[in-house]
Design brief:
The chain is mainly β. It contains 2 helices and 28 strands. The protein has helices at 5-9, 311-314, and strands at 11-17, 24-29, 35-40, 44-49, 54-60, 67-71, 77-81, 89-93, 98-103, 110-115, 121-126, 130-135, 138-146, 151-155, 161-166, 170-175, 185-188, 197-202, 208-213, 218-222, 228-232, 245-247, 253-256, 262-267, 273-278, 287-290, 297-300, 304-309. The strands form 7 sheets. A 4-stranded antiparallel sheet has the order 1-28-27-26. Strands 2-3-4-5 form a 4-stranded antiparallel sheet, with no helix packed on it. The longest helix has 5 residues, at 5-9. The relative contact order is 0.15.
Length: 315
């Protein structure tokens, strides 16, 4: 089934999970789309089965807390940032809830963490104004960049380059094989006066970069030239929350939550808003992602919602 404006408009909350007692701070689908992992400020890691729509496993990280969780490529493992003790990154075996490796280095809250789509490389960015490049097999970082401000970062879908958003006004592109030589492209954008960039994602087709903020605006730029393409607005974020925005797997749509319980969808090509979907969320929808393989979305505040298209509406 093809994703169209009409199909997107029929998406409805299919299931709500109330497993958490505090904000779900990050969510991540497996590459196959069959499971979803979440981390929460209540120190829980919960894995959901996307096909049966049930919680599959519940782990606790009471000692270090848990944030920004990402699946790795090895089965049953994840990396996450810490919310207690220190800002070390941790490599976790989900099978037996044991840590495989620690990655110390950051000295302030980690605000960006992403896994390479192709190998064991990952990048992290922190309020200590640095971006670090790591390999799961070694506890020492093998790349360090000091920046003038808060970083956001992301890999392109082929895992050959990464983009770093710096000080909410520049996007720099680095070749992973020679990142120590500096960026091969720098895009300067008009700075947002009222908000900071809080997320950076490449589209699945690699042609676009999406910048999300803690304000009421998202920006879409050309991944090759840095040309501003679209500005997405008209959603409520009156609490300076870092709202996650994401692409659909076909790169045609951008989705984002809000602080008033609505999920907004825009067309990446035209820039037009497709719809604002009503949810059951009563708190800000901080996390919002499309399943990479199945026709479903997930959104999270303190509880988690799975969304499916209502095909009767479509017919």
């Amino acid at each position: 089934m093809k994703l169209t404006d009409q199909v997107v408009k029929t998406f409805k909350t299919a299931k709500v999970f109330r497993e958490n007692t505090d904000v779900i701070n990050s969510i991540n689908f497996s590459a196959q789309g069959d499971t979803l992992i979440t981390s929460s400020d209540d120190d829980q890691v919960i894995i959901y089965d996307c096909q049966s729509g049930t919680p599959k496993k519940n782990l606790n990280s009471k000692k270090y807390g848990v944030g920004l969780i990402n699946y790795t490529h090895a089965q049953n493992t994840a990396i996450h940032s810490s919310t207690k003790v220190d800002d070390t990154l941790r490599y976790l075996s989900l099978h037996d809830n044991k840590y495989i490796r620690y990655f110390p280095g950051h000295t302030n809250k980690v605000v960006t963490l992403c896994m390479s789509p192709i190998d064991d490389t990952f990048i992290s960015g922190s309020l200590d104004k640095s971006i670090r490049l790591w390999d799961l097999r070694s506890p020492n970082c093998h790349g360090l960049m000091h920046l003038p401000g808060r970083p956001v970062a992301g890999f392109d879908p082929e895992g050959l380059i990464f983009a770093a958003g710096i000080n909410s006004e520049q996007v720099k592109l680095y070749d992973l094989r020679s990142f120590d030589k500096g960026p091969f492209a720098t895009f300067r954008l008009q700075a947002d006066k009222d908000c900071d960039w809080t997320g950076l994602k490449f589209s699945p087709d690699g042609k676009l970069i999406l910048l999300s903020t803690n304000g009421q605006v998202l920006r879409l730029i050309d991944a090759f030239q840095g040309t501003p393409l679209q500005t997405f607005m008209g959603f409520t974020n009156n609490k300076k929350v870092a709202l996650e925005a994401s692409f659909s797997p076909d790169s045609q749509f951008v989705i984002c939550g809000s602080t008033d319980g609505k999920v907004h969808v825009w067309n990446t090509e035209t820039g037009a808003k497709v719809c604002a979907l009503t949810s059951d969320h009563t708190a800000p929808i901080q996390s919002m992602q499309f399943n990479p393989k199945y026709m479903m979305m997930a959104s999270a505040c303190t509880h988690m919602s799975f969304w499916l298209p209502n095909l009767e509406d479509h017919i």
